Amino acid sequence: MTPEQIDALGVSTDIVTAAAAFGIGTSTAYAAAQNGTFPTRVIKVGSRYVVPTADLKAALGLSGAA
User: Fold this and answer.
1) How many C-beta atoms surround the C-beta of residue 42 within 10 A?
2) What distance lies between CA 17 and its chain's CA centroid?
3) Alpha-carbon span 41 to 47, nearest angstrom
4) Which of 54, 51, 63, 61 is CA-nearest to residue 20?
5) Beta-strand pair 12-14/43-45
6) Which contiguous run of DSSP H or E holds residue 48?
7) Per-residue pLDDT at 66
8) Coil, helix or strand for 66?
9) Where are the domains of the chain?
10) For the whole model, what pTM was predicted?
11) Residues in the chain where the model's pLDDT stays below 70
């Protein structure tokens, strides 16, 4: 994903999109979320995993991206 695509995500994104930004597979992302090793904070909302976009940007070194 490009920085522009990440900027366009809004306030949060799903774990599949966040995984794509990190270059990891969906199964690996879900396993990491379940055991607490995903590279960013993951919030469980019902049966979904949500990743705050600000955390995603920070982890990717894009904190200053507008």
Assistant:
1) 20
2) 6
3) 16
4) 51
5) unpaired
6) strand 48-52
7) 47
8) coil
9) 3-59
10) 0.85
11) 63-66
